[in-house]
Design goal:
By secondary structure, this protein is α+β, with helices and mostly antiparallel strands. It has 8 helices and 19 strands. Strands 3, 4, 5, 6, 7, 8, 9, 17 and 19 form a 9-stranded mixed β-sheet that branches. The two termini are about 20 Å apart.
Length: about 325
């Protein structure tokens, strides 16, 4: 994925200076862009993802992705191969160890809950989270499409981690800027086996990841490698502790930081319809499924995009 700084600056300078997602609204001429909320998210129109995309259209899609962090395309009846082709515009497709794969496609995952199944069958979390932060290179983003959705409910909600960080006090920023986090996915399967069968998650049965690849240390504040914008990268999913802190100390601070991401003015919600496709930035955006439906089927399929190793404020300063 590539968006030039000059492209963003030129678009922003010619916009009407409306602030959305924390920055001036860019100008779009090749695609339709309708923000979902003031915090993040936009619906994109005028694009058929089954067809090859011209460079100027693709540039604007990438600009929308970087600005809004989650972009939504409606009525995209794609084959799995078309889904993958579009995904590769954003980056390399990768596997993750825990999510069930989709049919014969090892490089696609599914999020599926049958009408008779309980909410907990889907690997989900009670709070906003980022996917697979325990990997050395957590995913850059997710490209997900709906095959079947409930009549009502089943939305996916998002929280802008840039805005969460930017609203912290200067003293709190100085504290979290220096923190590192141990994230671990080593115990997902063993912990799942300890649960009663009716409470177990649907997990991938086998994978090719080594155990030492399932635990890594990352900064609590993540910096965009090109723009330098900072976002909070601390969430409860797979969290073990802050480096150098006790577990009790770590949980006390994490619970406070996690509570900030729940505030509605950082959010947008995407209502799924059949053949809706969304792309979200897993690095700087938190998400959660809203399982407010019963006795209906919800089936989503996705590709996962390989990301870079997270860099913190000190790493970014040294690299400049």
């Amino acid at each position: 994925m590539s968006v030039s700084a000059s492209n963003i600056d030129a678009s922003a300078s010619s916009a009407d200076r409306t602030i959305v997602a924390g920055l001036p609204m860019p100008e779009f001429r090749k695609i339709g862009v309708e923000p979902i909320s003031g915090a993040c998210g936009a619906e994109i129109s005028g694009v058929d993802l089954r067809q090859p995309l011209s460079p100027d259209v693709l540039d604007e899609i990438m600009l929308a992705f970087e600005h809004f962090l989650v972009i939504v395309f409606r009525d995209q009846d794609l084959t799995p191969e078309q889904h993958k082709t579009f995904s590769r515009h954003f980056g390399e497709i990768t596997e993750i160890p825990q999510a069930p794969t989709y049919g014969d496609h090892r490089d696609m995952q599914e999020v599926r809950r049958e009408a008779h199944e309980p909410e907990n069958v889907v690997p989900s979390f009670e709070s906003f989270h980022t996917d697979s932060p325990f990997l050395l290179q957590p995913p850059l983003g997710i490209v997900m499409r709906a095959l079947a959705v409930p009549k009502f409910g089943g939305d996916t909600a998002f929280s802008n981690a840039y805005l969460v960080y930017e609203d912290l006090s200067d003293s709190m920023k100085a504290l979290v800027d220096e923190l590192q986090i141990v994230y671990s996915g080593k115990h997902i399967w063993s912990n799942n086996e300890k649960l009663p069968p009716e409470k177990r998650l649907r997990l991938r049965e086998s994978h090719d990841f080594r155990e030492d690849e399932l635990e890594n240390i990352h900064p609590a504040v993540r910096v965009h490698p090109r723009t330098g914008r900072r976002a909070l990268f601390a969430n409860t999913a797979y969290f073990q502790r802050f480096v150098g802190w006790t577990e009790d100390e770590s949980r006390a601070l994490l619970n406070y930081l996690q509570s900030l991401a729940q505030r509605l003015h950082y959010h947008c919600r995407v209502k799924w319809k059949k053949d809706t496709l969304i792309v979200w930035d897993n690095r700087f955006l938190l998400h959660r499924g809203v399982h407010d439906f019963k006795y209906e089927r919800r089936h989503l399929i996705r590709t996962t995009l390989k990301g870079e190793r997270p860099i913190g404020p000190s790493d970014f300063s040294q690299a400049k």
